[in-house]
Design brief:
The protein has 267 residues and is mostly helical. 79% of the residues lie in helices and 0% in strands. It has a domain at 146-266: Tetratricopeptide repeat domain (Serine Threonine Protein Phosphatase 5, Tetratricopeptide repeat), CATH 1.25.40.10. Helix 6 (220-234) packs antiparallel against helix 7 and helix 7 runs antiparallel to helix 8 (256-266).
Length: 267
């Protein structure tokens, strides 16, 4: 009994030491775990920072590329706008030159078509030198060719000045006021051209058809048919346009309009 007590007393310090070591081990685990957690957090933060910087660089590069593309598009747009303005000016100039050419040709042809004015010799004398006893029948009131020419030239000058709407009204007023004038076919023809310049193909066709129907032997008639075919083509009536061109060849085979019709029919 005393020997057992002595052995137990001698083992007590050893047991206490083991217990202390065990407690130290148990208490040290949370410290090491906390240290490991801090290092992992710092590593993750560093990784996130690197990823964020990479994404920021990518977005910055994409934004710079987008700005460059927008600037390039602006420059292209400005260049195209300049080209359009240049082409518009050239087209307007060409249209003006074409109008001047048409008017000049019309003036030259009209001078060739205008017959010389007949001189007024009065009543034929009798054998004894006196006037005939029988009075001449009353004549209908004649028009004033000079006034008609001035009125026609005024309408033509409006067309030449590119005042197309005013020119159309002037030509229409002329043919209404002077339906039997030698200038009426020309005025009707230019009325059709005025409507075409105003992009009204329906009215242009109607006006040119009056030229063909009312003055079929006039030099403007085949040209009027060519203009009708042009309007029909622009309206999408290819069949009607070909029929009109065939009419030019059938009715006016020796005209300059017939040469134009042949070229168009080949296309």
């Amino acid at each position: 009994m005393p020997a057992r007590r002595l052995r137990s007393a001698s083992e007590l310090p050893r047991r206490l030491t083991a217990l202390a070591v065990l407690l130290a081990l148990i208490g040290g685990q949370p410290a090491r775990a906390g240290m490991f957690d801090d290092e992992e957090a710092r590593r993750q933060i560093k990784d996130l920072s690197i990823q964020s910087n990479e994404r920021f660089d990518t977005l910055s590069k994409a934004q710079i590329d987008l700005v460059n593309q927008i600037q390039a598009l602006r420059e292209d747009n400005a260049r195209l706008r300049g080209q359009i303005e240049t082409l518009t000016y050239e087209l307007d100039s060409a249209k003006k030159r074409q109008q001047d050419l048409y008017v000049d040709v019309d003036t030259r042809v009209r001078k060739l078509e205008t017959p010389p004015a007949a001189s007024n010799t009065g009543a034929p004398p009798t054998a004894d030198g006196g006037a005939t006893a029988e009075a001449a029948p009353p004549q209908a009131a004649t028009s004033d060719p000079a006034a008609e020419t001035r009125e026609y030239e005024a309408a033509l000058n409006l067309f030449r000045a590119n005042k197309i709407k005013d020119a159309a009204g002037a030509f229409e007023g002329f043919v209404r006021a002077h339906p039997d004038s030698t200038l009426a076919p020309n005025a009707q023809y230019w009325l059709g051209n005025s409507h075409y310049s105003l992009r009204d193909c329906k009215k242009a066709i109607d006006a040119h058809r009056v030229v063909v129907a009312k003055w079929p032997q006039h030099p403007k008639a085949p040209d009027a048919l060519i203009n009708i075919a042009t309007c029909q083509q622009e309206q999408g009536d290819a069949k009607g346009a070909r029929a009109t061109l065939d009419t030019v060849l059938a009715k006016y085979p020796d005209s300059s309009a017939a040469a134009t019709a042949r070229q168009r029919l080949k296309k």
